[in-house]
Amino acid sequence: MYAQPEQLGSLEGQLRQLMNDPRTLEAIKRDAVPIPAAVNREGYFGERHLAYWLSGLGDLRMVEQLAPAARYSHVLDFGGASGRFARHVPLAKRKAQVTIADLNINHVDWVDQHFNSSVRAIKVNAIPHFPLADASVTLCVGLSVFTHIDAYETGWLAEINRVLGRNCYAVLTIHSEHSWKAISSIRPWMLELLNHDPRFSEAYRPGEPLPEERMVFKHVSTSKDYNVNVFMSEAYIRRAWGRWFEVVAVAPLAHHGFQTTVVLRKAS
After folding, report:
1. Is residue 107 part of a domain?
2. Is residue 155 part of a domain?
3. Are strands 137-142 and 164-174 parallel, antiparallel or unpaired?
4. Ranked by mean pLDDT, which of 6-20, 94-108, 185-199, 223-237 comes out on top?
5. CA–CA separation, 199 vs 4, rounded Å?
6. Is residue 188 part of a domain?
7. How high is the pLDDT of residue 226?
8. Fewer Cβ within 10 Å of end Cβ, the chain: N or C?
């Protein structure tokens, strides 16, 4: 797959740079898990299978860079779907255990069918709860999850706090005020989606600041799971999320050039 011209030709930016790293080719050769079909990965990257695989590796490298003290004994991949990120953890950390928690039972079934025991999956619901023991997780990663959580944000923060061990980290991505300013240039397709909510068209002016510290826009009324996009400011993160964790870092646009990455630590 990685040597196919059409797959290599579809790469851009950071993904192309990853192919110049000898560790990447070594990991590709060791990865025995099949690539899920687009329908089994929320449609991400379409038929660009190599780009899909590399995007998960890029996210692991981002986590390693932003949370260098994190331990990988038991990683909770919150909203991890069919393992785009999770597959890379045991490839890079030989003794790591990963638990994917996802709303979609089809993703859970796919993981159960194709991964070995180093990566397992559990189904969760919209109501905050992980069926995991207190302080049993050494690292929680949630990529593009809190971008879609409306009413139960603090409940999920409390659950992450409960399952994390002392001095362990959570790495979560958000739509920040920097994402807000970059919509028209980096995610123009989002404008049509977000404009389904009249509040967005009233609030959004290209290049202008996020009007409030946290804003929620609904856009797909027929969906119970993916019907919102949430934007929040760094000040909000430090005030509201700082009640649950030490906010170690806020890295604007670090996740795929659009989402901001927040690094949290459970101090006690």
Report:
1. yes
2. yes
3. parallel
4. 94-108
5. 45
6. no
7. 60
8. C
- CATH code, domain carrying 147: 3.40.50.150
C-alpha 265, offset from chain centre = 17
**Pick from 195, 191, 202: which is nearest to 218 by CA?**
195
Report which secondary-structure segment, H or E, holds 203.
Answer: helix 198-203
Residue with structure tokens 């859970």? 108
**Under 8 Å CB-to-CB from 178, ≥6 apart: which residues?**
252, 253, 260
CA 258, 237, 42 angle in degrees (round to 5)?
40
Q: Are 85 and 58 in contact (CB under 8 A)?
A: no
Nearest to 177 by CA among 237, 218, 245, 242: 237
pLDDT for res 223:
46
Rounded (10°) CA dihedral 159, 146, 113, 31: -110
Query: Using CA atoms, how far apart are residues 112 and 235, in angstroms rounded to an integer?
Result: 40
The number of distinct structural domains making up the chain is 1
Closest residue by Cα to residue 225 from 80, 104, 64, 50: 104
What is the SS3 assignment for 103? coil
* pLDDT for the residue numbered 1: 58
38 in a domain, yes or no?
Answer: no
**Could you read off the pLDDT of 200-256 as tens digits, one per residue?**
999 999 989 999 999 999 876 554 446 899 999 999 999 999 999 999 999 999 999
Pairing status of strand 228-232 against strand 214-218: antiparallel
Q: What is the token pair recorded at 14?
A: 């950071």
Flag whether pLDDT at 79 surpasses 70.
yes
Say how many C-beta atoms besides its own lie within 10 A of residue 26's C-beta.
Answer: 11
Q: Cα-flanking dihedrals φ and ψ of residue 86, to 5°?
A: -60, -35
